[in-house]
Amino acid sequence: MITKTIIINYKLIHFNFNALLIASIYMTNLLLASTENIDNQNNQHTPLNDPEIAGVVAHINEEHLDELLGFLSAFTSLSTTELDLVDAQITDIYAEGIAIQTCLKSSEIQPAGAHNTSLHNQTFFIAFAAPIFQLDDLQAQYILLKQRADKKLGKKTIKLTKQVFEVQNSYRISKNMLRLELSMLSLSDTPLNNAAQLSNAKGAKNSTSVPTNEAGYAYLFDLEHNAMTNALMTDSTDGNKAGDYKTNGSDKENVRPARLHCYYTLRKAWQADDEIRAWVDVFLHGDTPGGNWATALQAGETVVTKREFPEKVEHLRDGQAVLIVDETSMPTAARLLELWNNPTPPLVICVTQDAGDQSYLDTVKMRSCIDNIGNDNSNTDSDTNNDCDTESRKDDRFTVLPIVTNQPNSGAELATLIDRELGDYLTDNPLQIDKVWGALEANTAKALRPLLKDRLELSRTDVVVKVYWRHD
Question: CA separation (Å) from 37 to 77, 79, 125, 126, 244?
């Protein structure tokens, strides 16, 4: 089963939005973040006695380093220069907040003369907006903490908002990739900050917008919305109760999905006349709730999203980059290439189970509108203006290194294969790789990060390999 992992992926999948709203109001009334250096002061805070805490801490430390550094930047006195010298890890989770410890990066990747032993093993306490009493409460407080840190740092953040799209069409764009063409019902007259501000059919504005110039923007789709809609339609035509779902294989469209929500990436969005049009590309891989949901959608149906999350790709704006993707992250890579804001074209390692999906990137044109470093034309609303003519520069075509596995793309063995293929490529085509962005299955991502750090001699912050799904 494929699920796109956003923020924290442990046993808590859903949480009480009313409690979250109350905590959010409480948080906004705080004048200052409660932050302190807590070396040798851990007894001031209430420990949580839960056997799963160690696993949660390990997961956050492994997958969310950038967020921990963001907390330190937003809520402590550490300077940007100091933060560039350290990594960070959670040492414990308390009822009142989290303890984050800094540790110096290895000397090989520090700037000359930058060694500062005073930064080693400092521990800071970052307070929650409201205390938690069990581990199940952590996700809500962590999201609130992230939202507050991102706001203070001027970054885009996770949004807990509802959006409604209408299905216009669907079709295959490669052997196993299904494109959903979606639209919004109506559009307000004033676009805001490269995003389309929306209004509903009654003219009331939604609190969110659809980003037209972002790569990897993810939506949490509510699969239950369509399951219930289909059930109600069946009830009105043949008398079946809305709660009665058939279970035989010939009526999959009427089966309640085993997982009620699923993340999918916004492949692309643009303004067209009085509406916003969008593509969402879904990887079909057997009998899965998300795939069955996508293939059953018909033109005219609505789809609902409950949460949205921006991708972090800012580190790719300079240097030689390598992108490492599978079928779940190819949509992110495609839009990233179309909006490429770096004078150096990237190397793209494209891993697919089926050779028929390697064609997905064939029609993608890399953005070549950079007049010079630091000057680009990204602030445009027209979709055609964003996808610039690749003939204007001879070096603006990215290179794809294809890997076809003929099996599900998961596990540590795939990480070893990717590392070996990259090593062979660099032997024949010497490149100094400066930045990495990838998104793969959880076990593959975890195994690949240290391999790339060792091979490329890069820091953790420059080797960003995200978890987009888990092989259950």
Answer: 10, 15, 6, 9, 56
